[in-house]
Write a structure and sequence with these properties.
alpha+beta, about 170 residues, 5 helices, seven-stranded mixed sheet, about 30% strand, Aminopeptidase
Length: about 170
Amino acid sequence: MIKMNLNDPEQLVELHSLQHASYKIEAELIGFADIPPLLETADDLKNCGETFYGYKEDGKLAGAIAVSNEEGLCTICRLIVHPDFFRRGIGSVMVSYVCEHLSCKKFIVSTGTENHPARRLYEKHGFTHIRDEELAGLELVISHYEKTGNGINVDENKGESSSNEGSL
C-alpha cells in the first residue's frame, strides 16, 4: 500500500479506469446506475480532495481506498477493487491498512444497502451498522457504519509501503 499521487497522469488514468470497472459492478448490485463515481471525469477524481492509497498486484492497480480526515473523523469515501481481483482479500487489506495506519478517533463509511459483500467486509473489520437512509427522490438506500479509531499515526504521510503482499 502506498499513497497515490493523482498529479501523476499515469496513476490518475489507472485509478479512473479502476473506479469505473469497480463501480459498474456496484451499480448492478444496488440497482442504481447513476452512482456518482460512475459520472466522474478524471479531473473530478483528481480534484475530489480525498487521499488515495493503492494496491497493485501482477503489475496492475488491483484496488484503491480513498479517505478524508477531518479533525480525527476519518471517512472511507471509496473502496475500489477491480472485478478481475474480486474475492482475493484486497478490500480487506486496504480497510485494515487505513484503520491501522491513520490517526483517527472514529472511522465512518457508507455503502448501498444491497451491496452485501461490502457490508460483510465492514462488519468483519469491526464496523457497527448505525442506520439505513433512503435517499430522497431516489430508489436507493444507503447503510451507514462507524468504528472507533486507534488514534495513532503510523506512516500516514510518508507514502511508505507496508509489508502487505501487493503494492503500488
